[in-house]
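User: Run a structure prediction on this.
Assistant: Running it now.
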Amino acid sequence: MNRVKRCIGLAILLLITGCSTGVSTETESNPQKELIQEDELRIETESQTEEDSQSGQESRQEKISVQTTKEENDLTAELYGEDDDFYVQCLQNLNQGNSITYSDGYYYYRSQTENYSLCRTKGAGMPVEVVADQVPGSIYVRDDQVYFINVSDNRTLYCVGTDGSGLKKISDFPMHELIVLEDKVYFRSVYDREYDPFYLLTEEPAEDDCYIYSMNLDGSGCELLVPKVCMEFATDGEWLYYLVYEDEFVLYKSGMDGKEEEKILYKKDGIWDILPYQGDLYLVEGNQDLLVCLNAQGKEEILASDVLHLTIARGQAYVINEEKIRRIDLTTGEDRILADRNKTLKNGYHGYQSREDTYPWYSGSHNRGIFLVNGQVFARYYESETKGVLWHILNGETFVIFEDMEPLTAEELVLDTSLLHEADIYYPGRIDENVQEYLDADGDLYYEETFGTREAGSVYGHFSITLPKFNSKLDSYEQLNQQMEKLLELALEDKDSFFQEMSELRQDQWISWRREHEYCNLYIGEKYISMHYSRGGYEGGMREWKQSMPLIFDRETGFMLHMDDLFTVEESIYIKRLTGAIYKYCEMMGMDYWNDAFDNNVLVKNYRDLRCYLTPDGIVLCYERYEIKHGASGSPAFEIPYEWFADIYKQ
């Protein structure tokens, strides 16, 4: 690595200045028409003449007897037929994230046990193969290729061979869905002027607003279709259906090119889970969580209540609420409970357990839910505090584990975390008792200055810098101390900007303002020297703040190292390993708010170089306030034990 990369001055200056403040086109059969045809056949059979032979009567009776002993799913399949490939792979589990599908004898899915990798298996208890060491969102299989949204890489589109060969990135543009129709992909994403050639969007978009786009399956021809902020969308291959909030919830439809737009439904109290099926549109709406069928003429029919999410297969709607999974026949309206897990009472928040098993099927996230795959019902929910969330499959009226794992203790994943502490600012890691022998006897490098003094003699606008100074017991102490001196100079430049800010305020706003540069958690190992260097203080508002800028040095040379220098594999692999431990830990600890963070992959998305430090026990990843959760959670930091990544760590 060249000296430029190792230059601490440039790295810290950047930190300080940058942070100062295959589709079937055939029409699906009409179930009512098929029922009529079946009745006509029955009438015709009953009206046959008495000349029928005895053997013929016995044959018919035998067929009837066999039919009455068929499983209910077989009867449903006979009435409705198989749902087409486009529906099964792209729409059926759209509202649950499409993170499991079936093709050619294999289930392709996001594994809960293989560090959230894209995996495949032939069935429950069968060997699991890692297809790609990436975290998939939506998954779609065509021929011998698996297309998937890569959560590990900013939710961009990837493909890989079904045997794991030829992993390829198709597009740099992030996606929130993956609906493949013929050779086009339809999805929602943030605004990008490059893909809006006709300037459909004229107002400045918010950072997280999502609009509907299409793209060729090879990554070319990306184009903005709907310039409205869409909460969710679906398509039946002829129309786009999308939900927009305009002082009320409005459901639109348009052509596949975004044209011929019209409003088809208005609701004050909510619409979600839009799902086209056999010419009708199914959705959940209202305060009563109603399952509604909206036909082509715009007529609404309420099919059930107490529904949070739905999916449909072979003419049956499968719905969940916080306690139950039910199946509703779309023709007869029969409503049957398939599984029931009552909330566990406990004296606590609102009288219920404050953990994920409180809401087993639903926790507001694509990391949970029910899925219809290959005619079987899957659910992903919290199993235990030693296994976290696992895939389950419905066996009769009971769910059994589809992909099991060896139990883990929380300490095998994360040694400590600020999310479990009330303190706003906390940095894990036990004290390294050996460091004192390597520090200069004269003490730390220290500087302090105040902006001014009041008439009564009290000072205000305090600024300070504290940095370590090393002695000759370290062969690289001169190089280390030179870098500490350079860091001191750069921190003094921060003093000038702080004092300038103070000069622009009224005196009554100066009471508690301060700025500090300091270090903690100094660790001196056999190969590395590390410390948590930070910049922080108080400058008004509700709470103090701190910005983490940890540093790691090579003990032999004294040069600064980056995270890449610590591992034998590329960044995407070691970051996935480390963040996977944190995600699993949070699942096991029952942090149900964590699911949204997982969906958005915030640990990878918000990770920055020079945001980690070493301790005697592991590596600590540091995140800033608001990067994972609300400001009251402070600055989360996670200490991951060396044993978790020893095989890829340069010891």
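The mean pLDDT is 83.
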